[in-house]
Amino acid sequence: MARRFEGKTALVTGGSRGIGKAISERLVKEGAKVYVIGRSQENLVKLEAENPSINTIQVDLRDWDKTKASVEKIGIVDLLVNNAGITHKEFFVDEKKEQFEDIINTNFKSAFNITQIMARCLIDSCRPGAVVNVSSVVGIKPSVPGLSSYCISKAMMDMLTKVTALELGPHGIRVNSINPTLVKTDMAKQYYEDKEFMQMFLNRHPLGKVATLDDAVNAIMFLLSEDSAMITGNWIGLRSMQTVGFFGKPFILFDIFGKTALVTGGSRGIGKAIAECLVKEEARVYVIGRSKENLERIKAGNQSIFTIQVDFKEIGTKRKHLWKNWDCLFACK
Ligand SMILES: NC(=O)c1ccc[n+]([C@@H]2O[C@H](COP(=O)([O-])OP(=O)(O)OC[C@H]3O[C@@H](n4cnc5c(N)ncnc54)[C@H](OP(=O)(O)O)[C@@H]3O)[C@@H](O)[C@H]2O)c1
Description:
By secondary structure, the chain is α/β, with parallel strands linked by helices. The protein folds into two domains: 9-250, Rossmann fold (3-Layer(aba) Sandwich); 260-330, NAD(P)-binding Rossmann-like Domain (Rossmann fold, 3-Layer(aba) Sandwich), CATH 3.40.50. The strands form two sheets. The protein has a seven-stranded parallel beta sheet, with helices on both faces. The protein has a three-stranded parallel beta sheet with strand order 8-9-10, covered by helices on one side. Helix 1 packs across helix 8 (213-224), helix 3 runs parallel beside helix 4 and helix 4 (97-124) runs parallel beside helix 5 (148-168). Helix 5 links the parallel strand 5 and strand 6. The radius of gyration is 25 Å and the shape is elongated. The termini are far apart. The chain has helices at residues 18-29, 41-50, 64-74, 97-124, 148-168, 189-192, 195-204, 213-224, 269-280, 292-301, 315-324, 326-330, and strands at 9-13, 33-38, 55-58, 79-82, 129-134, 173-180, 235-238, 260-264, 284-289, 306-309. NADP nicotinamide-adenine-dinucleotide phosphate is lined by residues 14, 16-20, 37-40, 43, 60-62, 83-86, 106, 134, 136, 180, 182-183, 185-188. It holds the Pfam family adh_short.
């Protein structure tokens, strides 16, 4: 294995389990001196027993001042992975102040705090560095109801990636994020153990699979390494293309995926825009229009739209034909 990080110091938050543990172990293999922050002493002791060369720091990241004091003790950090995260399921209207604060403090404020300390130190010593924020695809587009605070915390993290990339770039510090959907860890257990949810998830994923820890680690390692030397302020999505819509049977409010839709007057204007949106949501879309020319144009721009040429002024004579063929046209949907 290449030792790309020889001589570098790395800090991974939430490195005692899941994605953070996997990235810490890979960083060690690639030559970095690794510090891991975790909250549970028990998990950190387990990590140290498995990987004696990893340095562990027990601190609750929700505590700004204690976190600051612990991180400042490390000194220069060349590579930072803001990975620690928590989530819970609660509808927006029922979310408690404490729940909201827990999520924002852990997922976002800790990243803000630690990136600031790391950056100040690197700037003072004129050294380059790299930061990877472990965000989520729901920070870009929420897809599961009941995760409002989590989605907001990840959206804040994505903005942190952009603003810090802008301000720290001139100092040679790059900042990027990975935005996974599902990775097989404790956090995602409730989803990948739900067969119905998983079937829907896999149907929507062009690769038809869930990201492994290795998939997540490979993306993070790329962003930390010189292989991505010209990349900053960007995100890598370990995701499905279909990130709009609602996942999970109990929460389905409106799901267009796989449905058949008919848009009248869909060859131009608002109708055309609606038809195109429906295609993006993976509906099977039929468009009725009068002008053959306009229908051909929409078809040329979007191969998956089906077109039907009907002039509604002639509906009296054409109606029979249309209704007679309704079943085969729309497959009874
Ligand atoms: N798994 C997924 O499907 C998925 C998808 C998208 C994004 N993500 C993101 O990926 C990151 C890692 O997720 P994961 O699945 O690996 O989670 P995980 O297995 O639940 O691990 C979470 C880690 O964060 C640490 N942590 C939590 N709260 C902390 C606090 N207050 N202070 C210090 N450490 C704390 C935990 O430490 P303790 O052991 O001490 O509790 C643990 O090491 C998270 O930011 C998550 O939002 C995950």
